[in-house]
Design goal:
3 copies of one chain form a homotrimer.
Chain A lengths: L1 E10 L3 E4 L1 H11 L4 E7 L4 E7 L4 H13 L16 H10 L3 E7 L2 E2 L5 E7 L5 E11 L1
Antiparallel strand pairs in A: 1-8, 2-7, 3-5, 3-8, 4-7, 5-6
Chain lengths: 138, 138, 138
């Protein structure tokens, strides 16, 4: 079987947004027992993250790391019409994931104890981010 | 159903090669309605990229970023027999994707408006790159 | 069909561990002919790697690169309770893959000639790492 569902995440600018419960809910309503849950973000300046879900400092440190690795307004970038955070947002997306697949076992999304699913908004402004979840299997 | 197809992309050295139309064509001929399109590159010095498809400067800036992050001929690398771009090509592959899955909805590859699919050749010399596309679903 | 199998990899600290044969074995016992093999690691401080399998220097150079990119004990990190390698382990996981899909063709895992599958342990201490392999297709 295949079960697909759209999801829109409204962000208020750069940062990580926990979507673990949304994903688990879609897995439940699909009635899939065994297979895969695929999550896809239809944008090139936001991405997906599987990350430690207990201490929010982890995601803050990730943000700090990315800011240092891909500085906003870096003089090396020529694609600057949409602002100093635009090209860094594309780079950050390329260095992380636009799609994630997670095993579904016995009707549940089989994440590790410390794994959460996050949308990572890379632009500094608020956006609506479109996500498609595809469940497939038995 | 499962539908698989091989694709060879001939590159003329480092850079990004748009394969969006090839992928869309394979989705069409598969007659898959709903499911996933998986793209896989069978090499360790070329990778796949979902990237902004409107302004080519974005992909040039990505190249500039990668050249600075993983410089050719960096003295830290010991695997240098095949040239100064060989080990950087492996690193760039590891930091990006060897495989991508994209939702198929109503018989079409459901990319975002600004998403294109690219093969990223990381070696400076020309290569033939082998890709397998796997369609699965209903 | 869907076929799932758990795998535990015992590591003795930071480094890459070849799991290509384990994965091939699971593909064989599944009797899947055509489809995809998905590998997922249920942790946020270890990841998966498709990498050159001939010269071990490649994986040593990757380690060197990551140590320079994300130095243990970097003063920018605030999540330090579990040691100087903890936050770098999360960053390294985010920059690589928690899940990989590989095409299965004619009953075999269709890796390129030089592609091997590795678990990348990012913590300096030994760990047991849980992996789920999901085979799906015909």
């Amino acid at each position: 079987m295949v079960y697909q569902k759209q999801l829109t995440v409204t962000t208020n600018g750069r940062g990580t947004y926990d979507i673990t419960r949304d994903i688990s809910g879609i897995v439940s309503e699909s009635s899939l027992q065994d297979g895969l849950c695929h999550i896809f973000v239809h944008h090139t300046s936001a991405s997906l993250l599987l990350c430690e879900n207990a201490d929010p400092t982890v995601r803050r440190d990730l943000e700090t790391f990315m800011k240092r690795l891909v500085p906003d307004g870096d003089a090396m970038f020529q694609h600057i019409d949409e602002g100093p955070d635009d090209m860094p947002a594309h780079v950050r997306t390329v260095l992380t994931q636009s799609g994630l697949s997670i095993p579904v076992i016995n009707g549940r999304c089989s994440l590790g104890t410390w794994q959460g699913v996050y949308l990572w908004e890379h632009r500094t402004m608020a956006h609506n981010r479109r996500i498609t979840v595809t469940l497939s299997g038995d």
